[in-house]
Specification:
By secondary structure, the chain is an alpha+beta fold. It is built from 17 helices and 10 strands. Helix content is 45%, strand content 15%.
Length: 425
């Protein structure tokens, strides 16, 4: 931002010069020009780095129309333009009689030649810099996510036939990027997560001294409230009642892993690694020996110790004290859909599935077993036990860091909580 300890009025008294901000043309967005005049001997102008919709410009006041100044973006623009005028007059007073004052001088003032940055100025290349800075502090999954966003941005650059610079990440970029991702079939919440990462890249670049757009902080990213699919207790009971003899060996194996997931509240990347060697026994406050399971979460690196549910113990007894046979995530995802289908979990449920013909995520009512995925056990445990087990204990099981994150995870809104609170009034 252009800064000075002086005010525009206090500077202008030392010179006959005048400065005006003008638009040339009615096309939206229009470039804001700055014009410096000093009597008849000097009249120069140059493009600034600012733009505005001509409909939102007060030509007489040479600023955004007053009613828009309540908006932070227009308020920041107004402040920047005022600072620019002050800084230009200050520089003119210093340079007059010392330097040649002409259009070249003015353009150099507006866009001073900067020493070459040791960091990339374009977003795609800067992601590699970000990864280099962060690779020792974050999980490999985060690095993989960053690389995935980089590939997406490369495709977006080809689509727009332009290079995306860090300083260009603003409201217009957000809208264009969202539209492109929607056309490509990305879910809205996936696009929102990608934009959060993109803002993080830019803020990291800013901390390294690179220029960012004045709108960056005001780029708002909204998550759409997703339909939380989970298995209720009745549906879990249906799965438990499935007779193994009516299922293939693969489906029997998947059935018990699904039940384990519904009673341990862990991600598939964690529970599929469970082994009897992770089980130990400790005495509770009553002096009773109770089984605990200790492991390290893959995603967070957090060391977890959780109580072993009696239902899981019953399953282990079926496998001579061992956990079921380990299977790949993809095969597990496929098998549990068939397990739930066999259990009659076919209630029409609103959800999203990828349509290979349209290449898009389509939201509509599907038989519920089609919407089942490897994450459903964790959410089922959290949702089914909310209000029955203290939230602090549930968070310990799921590994959520804050209650707000936990409540969002199980789909509880402020309205839901308010209705629940009426029980106490």
């Amino acid at each position: 931002m252009w800064t000075s300890l002086c005010t525009f009025e206090s500077i202008i008294q030392y010179t006959m010069a005048s400065i005006n901000l003008i638009l040339q043309g009615t096309k939206n967005p229009a470039v804001i020009y700055i014009r410096l005049r000093d009597g008849r001997k000097l009249d120069i102008k140059a493009k600034t780095n600012y733009h505005i919709n001509p409909a939102n410009w007060d030509e007489k006041e040479q600023r955004p129309v007053k009613k828009l100044l309540k908006n932070i973006d227009y308020a920041n623009l107004d402040t920047d333009l005022s600072g620019l005028k002050i800084s230009l007059l200050t520089e003119y007073n210093k340079s007059k009689g010392v330097k040649t004052i002409d259009s070249k001088w003015l353009n150099e003032f507006i866009n001073p030649t900067e020493p070459k940055s040791k960091y990339p100025l374009n977003l795609v290349d800067y992601i590699d810099t970000y990864i280099e800075f962060k690779k020792k502090d974050v999980k490999e999954t985060t690095i993989k996510k960053c690389k995935g966003i980089k590939e997406l941005l490369i495709r977006y650059e080809k689509h727009t036939k332009s290079v995306i610079f860090i300083k260009d990440i603003n409201q217009d970029f957000k809208v264009g990027f969202e539209n492109y991702c929607e056309e490509m079939g990305y879910a809205k919440n996936t696009t929102a997560k990608n934009l959060i990462y993109i803002k993080a890249f830019c803020n990291h670049a800013k901390s390294n001294g690179l220029e960012t757009h004045f709108q960056l902080d005001s780029v708002k990213i909204k998550y759409n409230r997703a339909k939380h699919i989970y298995l209720n207790n009745e549906e879990i009971a249906k799965i438990e009642c499935l007779e193994d003899k009516n299922l293939t060996d693969g489906l029997v194996n998947a059935k018990y892993w699904l039940l384990i997931s519904c009673y341990c509240a862990q991600r598939v990347s964690d529970f599929m690694r469970f082994d009897k060697s992770m089980i130990r026994y400790e005495k509770n406050r009553k002096g009773e020996l109770k089984p605990l399971l200790e492991f390290t979460q893959v995603k967070t690196g957090k060391i977890m110790t959780i109580p072993l549910h009696s239902k899981i113990i019953e399953i282990l007894e079926k496998f001579d004290g061992n956990f079921p046979k380990k299977i790949s995530d993809q095969r597990y995802n496929d098998h549990i859909k068939n397990v739930c289908k066999a259990a009659g979990i076919n209630e029409l449920t609103l959800g999203k599935l990828f349509n290979p013909e349209t290449k898009l995520q389509e939201e509509k009512f599907y038989e519920k077993h089609l919407l089942v995925s490897s994450h459903i056990g964790r959410r089922s445990f959290a949702t089914n036990n909310y209000g029955k087990i203290p939230t602090t204990f549930l968070m310990q099981m799921t590994g959520h860091a804050t209650e707000s994150m936990f409540l969002t995870y199980i789909g509880k809104s402020n309205k839901d909580l308010a209705i629940e609170m009426t029980d106490f009034f």
